[in-house]
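Quick one, tokens below:
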């Protein structure tokens, strides 16, 4: 995000204060006097959100209290604030089944299967009350490399994966959209994903097609997945018509088209480096 801002001719200052240090955050805002604030901070846990189940006090300080304090500080100073939030506050249900109606911004959160999602859902309900805040709900962020935080890297390293269609956020497509929204000082709550849904199997099949012909994976059920996790995981389809209507001059690629672009760029980068490093994996299948 910082590199993108700077390449676009903007001066970008990276905050030095941690989000839970509320008074220091406000002081840093006053010292730097920004025109816009982008909040990308939050606790998701390492190696995954299961960590949050055993560190609830820390998660509350950052994801709930710290985030709201930042939004409030920006509101008091008349600053536009883009808050990168999450769509992991919904999961398929009877009104929104797989293949059925997607979740819209007006739908109340229906998922509290992890403490991470609980705190994020609370902020999601309150952030629209601030008139200067733009809240963007990301889902399963996907980058063009094998960063440890990339959704592709995560599922490629699992022993087994579920096969459920989900909304995802391809950063190559959507980070520039976030900048456009901020420049135009658009506010409110938006689902922030590519149009459509893609399953775990479809993502890994594309990785195999473009980057590693010897790659393989296995499936298991959501019930079996739940047995090996401390916290639940949600799956959902987020509607993006509100986002598209807010930027009628901006084209956001459909998710399958976008993912082919991701893996083509990944393949090209591997080729330029002269290597095809696979993600961390279990022992090869016999």
């Amino acid at each position: 995000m910082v590199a993108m801002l700077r390449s676009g001719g903007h001066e970008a200052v990276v905050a030095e204060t941690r989000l839970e240090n509320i008074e220091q955050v406000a002081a840093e805002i006053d010292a730097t006097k920004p025109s816009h604030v982008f909040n990308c901070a939050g606790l998701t846990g390492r190696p995954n959100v299961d960590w949050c189940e055993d560190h609830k006090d820390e998660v509350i300080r950052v994801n709930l209290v710290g985030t709201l304090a930042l939004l409030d500080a920006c509101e008091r100073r008349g600053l536009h604030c883009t808050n990168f939030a999450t769509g992991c506050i919904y999961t398929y249900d009877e009104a929104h089944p797989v293949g059925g109606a997607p979740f819209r911004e007006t739908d109340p959160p229906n998922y509290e299967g992890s403490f991470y999602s609980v705190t994020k859902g609370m902020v999601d309900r309150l952030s629209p009350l601030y008139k200067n805040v733009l809240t963007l709900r990301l889902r399963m962020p996907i980058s063009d490399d094998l960063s440890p935080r990339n959704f592709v890297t995560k599922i490629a390293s699992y022993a087994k994966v579920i096969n459920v269609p989900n909304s995802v956020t391809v950063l190559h497509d959507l980070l520039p959209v976030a900048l456009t929204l901020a420049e135009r000082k658009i506010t409110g709550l938006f689902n922030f994903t590519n149009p459509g849904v893609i399953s775990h199997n479809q993502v890994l099949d594309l990785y195999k097609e473009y980057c590693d012909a010897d790659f393989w994976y296995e499936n298991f059920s959501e019930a079996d997945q739940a047995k090996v996790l401390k916290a639940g995981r949600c799956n959902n389809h987020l509607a993006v018509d509100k986002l598209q209507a807010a930027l009628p001059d901006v084209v956001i690629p459909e998710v399958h088209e976008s993912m082919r672009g991701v893996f083509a760029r990944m393949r090209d980068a591997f080729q330029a480096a002269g290597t095809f490093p696979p993600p961390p994996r279990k022992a090869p299948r016999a």
